[in-house]
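Batch 3, record 17
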Amino acid sequence: MIDTAIASLTSGGAYALLGVGLVLTYRMTGVLNFAHAVVGAFGTYTAIVAFEAGVGYGVAMILGVAVAALLSGGIGVVMARWFAEEATIVRSTVTIAMFLGVLVVGFRLFGDTPRVVPALLPGVRLEVGTVTLTGSTLLSVGGVIVLAGAVAWFLAKTRTGIVLRAVSERPITARLLGVPLRTLVVAVWAVSGAVAGAAVTIIAPTRTNDYASLAILILPALAAALLGGFQRVGATIVAGFGIALVELMGARIPAVARYRTVVPFLVILAALLWMQRKEVWDEAR
Amino acid sequence: MLVTVMAIVVAACTGGSVEDDGQTTTTVATTQATVTTTAAPATTAADLEPIKLGSVNSLTGQIVFPEASAAAKAVFDRVNREGGIDGRPIEYLIEDDAADPAGAAQAARRLVEDEGVVAMVGSASLLECAVNGAYYAEQGVYSIQGTGVDPLCFASSNISPVNTGPYLGYTVSLYFASEVLAKENVCALIFDIPDFRPAMDAAIQQWRDLTGKDLAFSNFTLQFTDDVTPFVLQARDAGCEVVVSNGLDVHYIGFMQALQAQGIDDMAWVGLTSGYTAEVAETLGSMGAGSGILHVNSEFEPFTLDSPVLEDWRNLMTEAGVPLTSFAEGGYLAATIMVDVLEGIDGPITRESVSEALLALEGYEHPMIGSPYSFGDAPAHNPNRASKFLRLSGGTWELATDDWVVLPTG
Amino acid sequence: MRRGDLVLFGSVAAATVLFALLPPFWAFLASSAFISALLISSVGVVYGRAGMVSLCQVTFAGIGGWVVGYLGVATAVPYPVALVLGALAAVPVGVVIGLPALRLRGVNLAVVTLGFAVAVSSVVFVQGFPGARTNDPVTRPGLVAGERGFMVFTAAVFLIVAAALLATKRTRLGAAWEAVRHSERATAALGLSVSLIKLSAFAVSAFVAGLAGGLLAAQLGFLNARNVEPVDSLVVFVIGVFVGAHHVGGALLGGVLGSFFPELLRRLSIPQDVGPILFAIGATHILARGGRGLAEHLGRRRPAAGGDVVVLRPEGGAPTRHRADPGRDLVLRASGIEVRYGAVVALEDVDVEVAQGRILGLIGPNGAGKSTLVDVITGFHRPDAGSVTVGETVLDGLPAHRRARLGIRRTFQTERTVPALGAGEYLRLAAGGHLDRAEVVELLAFLDGPDPDTPVYAVDTGTRRRLEIMGCLAARPTFLLLDEPAAGLTEDESLRLADRLRQVPERFGVGLLVVEHDIDLVAAVCDELVVLDFGRVIGRGAPDEVLASDVVAEAYLGV
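Prediction for the assembled complex:
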């Protein structure tokens, strides 16, 4: 059982990273970004293509993250320019359309064959009992810790972070105060794209990494973010690791194995209903 | 209102319909090629009505199989250059279903009802057998599948694939593991692909019936998106000596990576023909993983080896610019069989006469396959029961079996 | 049915006949279009009409298709019956999925429904559909066995469903969906159960989607998991949003686009994956032009400008008496009410009493707790201590809509009428029972309301506030609580309102509780005043006494 728990850390970290990106985008810009994972995958694949073309490994990785940031920033521009006044659901629906578009463009550009993504820290190994922690696992978990810390510090301690929090709660006020709303929004999107690119790049070497499989990581990311109520970064991280753990644990128990994709969903549903049990009325209306 | 307008617009764009006779040069979209009727000048084929053959393929989308139809087209193009069938050119229509069931259904209906094809040949799709099997039966159309993938390709009266397929192929692989590699603890790790489970269960049962042995450990719940490490660890803990798994090429890379990362080197691995690609060997070679461990099966004469049997295939594919893969072998074979069938028909070549000829087709031997191809009137067809196995050595594939491993009919 | 709708239905019928003349392949495409249109209509019900995001519509379709397949394999049930049974089978599933919707909204609900789609897909659909393994397809009965016949069948099913959904717009159910979409609190205040309304929307939506699934199963013979993937639900939802799925034309447009566009690409020799890319761009573009969808943009009627609204003035003559037997006047009593938010005390030990036929004024500075008290009495907020009774009946524990049904009605500080309904429709919805035209006109005239057919969005805020009051009165309540009815009114309008309010107890037999800042109005209208400050009652009695007292002056002026 312990080995399974440890083996789930890599995936858990990736789910947590992606989930936190979703929560950030939602909190700061009021959009549920269905295209989050596919944008990250697009960046990862750009890095792979560059690497296969002979570009140095580090440079290729940075390029990938930059491409993801750029793509996501582009979506942010579309959001800020044309959808600034629309309801959250409409804006989130647009990201579904974006998801489909980037998915299909990616198929065309990168083909359907999975690529070999070299592990970021090959040869790094840590023996824990009967299980070996690979470099990817360490990177994944480490990445989450670093990101969570960075986000918390940024939002609470830096001026821009506080401004962002203000903007997300009262966009009109912020605009009246001369805060460059559009720039900030696009910046948030770009950063979230970079985070997605990093997350997918970390996880890609450890599992089936054809383009579509990476894009579908949006599902566990959504589940993790959901459990955090789309508000709490800490809960999202815990949820991300939890979901990965439950999925793999479920695989070990024959009776449950077949249904293990359902378990996280049920758990999240129960948790959500419990958390919202007092919310009889919808907020604004 | 809009429906009417759209219909008129689209109808106006069409070249023709079933009612038209004669030279309909309908061009059909593919990512690979547009196919037209005209044979090369200088030979006699141009004036006679073309023989229409069709195929439904997954050409765009998540998982694509473009080489089978491309290879078949190369065969038919050569036939046309050399004068066609009794002077009639072959018009080969390649449709893309984009791995979408509705697309597959539309494509089949277009080919069968709109175009009036006499038969289907060389199709390679993720799901078209499931979607269209009953339709073909209803319409009296037969299909020599270039690459059968979904279970109904092997359970349909009107479809007979040239390849072994992932189910019988799994049985052959288990047989290889237990009888040729002669390992005691044989284990199974199976990806849970929609609709494939019952066929996998039947495949494993067939192995049990043939050998009287059973699996030491099995897990049928792997998902494509999983990290495979936990499952590899499970197999190790269960004392497996050899693991037989399904999946795509990437998954074999994943398994070997996991074995390497966890330092497991005493467990053999057998995979399906999807793992038998040059890229898998190269990739694993560059990682230093899987050598001596991974075996894969080849349902046709192995194409990475320099076999004289494959000379014509190799030349034709290179000339036509088709990548050299096992899918291209399948398409080539399917087209070759079809050409032989067409040439063997006395009298006019129509859907009825072709169907009749296919129903009578038994014991068709070809050096590229280890068991004879057949169609016939059985309710299901899976004629290819033989594989050759290869072992990964460094960065290349080595032959692991001198001759075909043919599954006994038990 | 409006003339535009009739034209649309007629065109569809004509187009179907036209297609029957073309080769069967076109009939097949047309069937696909109708099936897609039906699926998109289901999005129109749950999201377009009732305002809830559901990303699992294709899953409901899958369930319908599964049941149809099962009935085809295991029983001898004829296909049309199996089709309906399949759709009905999807209904309880829809209700179950609707249950989280009672507490979850917006993106939370969206993700939960998506999770459900993934769960069902990976557990049920991945096992395969009945008949697929045994190669036993759904057989269609003689008349619809061919492609053309089946096309006519799918067209008929779609048109019938579309007509039925259109018909609901005239009914209370349709108005109730509209109310829930706009505001849950408003809906409860109208005496309607928000839960039941939401569940009914999910149920109907699941039924329609289940029908689509059953048709698809018959069109293809059997389904497989790839027909009903979660991603497809996402696509259907996006299409539904951008075509405006709650309109028949919108749903049809979506269905036609889905079926015929790939064919168009094929004819133009454009690769198939250009389709999704164009879709992504197109959807983004259309959504940028407004979130209610293409069909609504295309078909929007110009709202009447303020000046064109016909306002009804009351005729002279004796007002109709609705008053119940005066000897049995009820008393609404709130005693010992306490509301705390953590350490903050919103209300402490508040006692308030209104008798039927009397008007009580509730005044006090901002933040005194007046609205909170109204919320507590009407059931919108549960107090930490205290009790609310009407006569002998104890109201504690009853949800807001039940209290509204029992005759306790209220208006909101920010008015909560339902913009998309007509004025008369709104009153009928509020009345909860039958309300004939004469009564509607009378009510509207009483407070200078607009013509019954005027849509609520077309009138100004002041009229809407009065409309809200009219709605309450339409329900013949025993008690009516008004939260700042004069806010934002001019002095003239205030006087007019005061005059009307004075008539209300006599004419309608209600007890009024009026929360107000307008001291003149309160002084003119009320029989008794209660003053709140910092959640406590600091004054009570006849208006002139209370208003002259020092305690009250101190509270207001801070002196």
